[in-house]
Amino acid sequence: MRGHEPRSSSSCSACKLLKRRCSPNCIFAPYFRSDEPKKFAKVHKVFGASNVSKILIEVPEEQREDTVNSLAYEAEARLRDPVYGCIGAIALLQRKMIELQHDLALARARLARYAATSSAISSTDRVSMGPFGDFPVGFGGFIDSFGQNISSEVNQDAYMYDFSQIPYI
User: pLDDT tens, 113-152?
Assistant: First the structure.
């Protein structure tokens, strides 16, 4: 585990920032190494050294590194977005996932219409295009079928996808 590497003679980044002497049993030393000064600075700015120390004491030792990484991520997110923090990033990803699911549903509907349209066209109405396969002779209607009912599909589901509000978890 990276956090439990032997310490060098220098202080950990937490003790350096707090301007105190780093003791051998320093709770911060295994997780805030001296070569990562910004990591503790961000965590300290958001949560405070005392709160981080209390959190680390309460967490079992085998989970502390994950806890510190989580605190560092949350602190960085809160510094980037002071209002929403991590929830803002989660909401953005959820919104994007809903948009992509909607796009996938539209693509599947178009594909189903294409399959139905292409199977309805008889083989006598096709012209051979050599290595590219057969294409319908009157493909104007075929291409137009992609645009049919798209606006009605979007309008039917529009009420479900109101992206004006950030969802709360």
Answer: 988 888 777 454 555 555 555 555 444 444 444 454 444 4
Beta bridge partners of 128: 134
Cβ-proximal residues to 93 (8 Å cutoff; 6+ apart), any chain:
none
- The distance from CA 113 to its chain's CA centroid, rounded to whole angstroms, is 33
The three state secondary structure string of the chain is CHHHCCCCCCCCHHHHHHCCCCCCCCCCCCCCCCCCHHHHHHHHHHHCHHHHHHHHHHCCHHHHHHHHHHHHHHHHHHHHCCCCCHHHHHHHHHHHHHHHHHHHHHHHHHHHHHHHHHHHCCHHHEEECHHHCEEECCHHHHHHHHHCCHHHHHHHHHHHCCCCCCCCC
Contact 72, 42 (CB under 8 A): yes
Residue 54: HSE in the Cβ half-sphere, 13 Å Cα cutoff? 6
Listed residue (74, 1, 2, 26) closest to 11, CA to CA? 26
Beta-carbon count within 10 A of 27 CB: 18
Q: How confident is the model at residue 68 (pLDDT cuts 50, 70, 90)?
A: very high
Single pTM value for the model: 0.56
- Alpha carbons 103 and 86: distance in angstroms, whole number: 26
